[in-house]
Specification:
Structural class: alpha+beta
CATH class of the largest domain: Mainly Alpha
InterPro entries: BVU_3817-like_C_sf (IPR049281), BVU_3817_N_sf (IPR049282), DUF5606 (IPR041218), DUF6852 (IPR049280)
Protein name: DUF5606 domain-containing protein
CATH architecture of the largest domain: Orthogonal Bundle
Number of helices: 4
Strand content: 15-25%
CATH topology of the largest domain: Arc Repressor Mutant, subunit A
Pfam families: DUF5606, DUF6852
Distance between the termini: 25 Å
Largest sheet: 5 strands, antiparallel
Strand order of the largest sheet: 4-3-2-1-5
Order of helices and strands: EEEEEEEHHHH
């Protein structure tokens, strides 16, 4: 599911990929459902391609979002990201991902991740596990 959820630099919030045309994507905001174009010049990244640095390796975003969901019992985050101090954000994040790299994961990254989580929960997206491509599923079925 996270492969079709996009973050576009310069535009607040998250977007769902609806369609694509020549030199642009058609995306729909998860918050207000408005459809807008995202052009080739826009920096667009799929949430399925994001990982968080840890002391050992990188952890895919879907695992971190699932950990947040388990901690919050499927509700929005209990910490106020707009008023939380950097140390509060780090302490909260350490409960979710104890081995996160404190030198490379900044408080602004934690804020963004938690706000993305709130947007996803608000949009009714609660399953963060990646979907297997249809071809892989067919191979396993054989």
């Amino acid at each position: 599911m996270l492969k079709t959820i996009l973050s576009i630099s310069g535009k607040p919030g998250l977007f769902k990929l609806v369609s694509h045309g020549k030199n642009m994507l058609i995306v729909e905001s998860l918050t207000d459902k408005k459809r807008v174009p995202a052009y080739a010049k826009d920096k667009v990244i799929s949430l399925g391609d994001i990982a968080i640095y840890t002391d050992e390796a990188e952890v895919p975003l879907h695992e971190v979002l699932t950990s947040v969901k388990n901690k919050e019992n499927g509700a929005k985050v209990s910490i106020n990201t707009s008023t939380a101090k950097p140390e509060e954000l780090r302490t909260y994040f350490a409960e979710i991902l104890p081995s996160f790299d404190r030198d490379r994961v900044y408080p602004s990254d934690i804020k963004k991740l938690l706000s993305w989580y709130n947007i996803l929960i608000g949009a009714g997206i609660t399953d963060f596990t990646p979907e297997e491509p249809a071809e892989e599923a067919k191979e396993e079925a054989k």
